[in-house]
Specification:
alpha+beta, six-stranded mixed β-sheet
């Protein structure tokens, strides 16, 4: 049975014979259901025409995205520290090359994501089992975020053009 991934938000749902009737993330008032209605894919289908996109954002900060972009274009950050690594957020696809690089950089001690996206995405299941932390969905940058991630997010947010 496949684990279904929502095409709109990228969150992986439980493995079932048939796709769920709706995505609980997209039905939340902070998200949306796409114009074509609820659509699903699987990790196998996703990997047919996409790859993981690894970017060295800064020293000890690896960005992990998907190319071409998928769902809402989310990306994870692997924060490498002397006391262990933290996987900050998740992505829907973690291919073999990305998994190898994450593994090469050492085990992650924690995985953190926003509360309304607390359902595991594909990358969480592929990498390792680790304690997970959830943060409030409207967290302010800098309040509970590791310092160099906070600094990076503030700089990149100020460079983005309004949508």
């Amino acid at each position: 049975m496949p684990a279904w991934i929502c095409v709109t938000c990228g969150v992986q749902q439980a493995a079932t014979a048939e796709p769920p009737p709706a995505c609980p993330i997209c039905e939340d008032e902070r998200q949306y259901v796409g114009w074509e209605g609820q659509r699903w894919t699987t990790g196998t289908e996703l990997a047919r025409d996409r790859t993981s996109d690894l970017r060295e954002e800064e020293t000890d900060l690896l960005g992990i995205g998907t190319s071409p972009s998928f769902a809402i274009g989310q990306r994870a950050l692997l924060v490498c520290t002397e006391r262990g690594n933290v996987l900050w957020d998740c992505v829907s696809l973690l291919d073999d090359a990305a998994l190898e690089e994450v593994t090469r950089r050492g085990a992650s001690r924690r995985s953190a994501c926003h509360i309304h996206i607390s359902t595991p995405r594909a990358s969480n299941g592929r990498t390792h089992s680790m304690p997970r932390s959830s943060f409030p969905p409207r967290i302010g940058i800098g309040s509970s975020v590791p310092h160099h991630v906070s600094s990076y997010l503030k700089r990149t947010r100020s460079r983005r053009s309004p949508a």
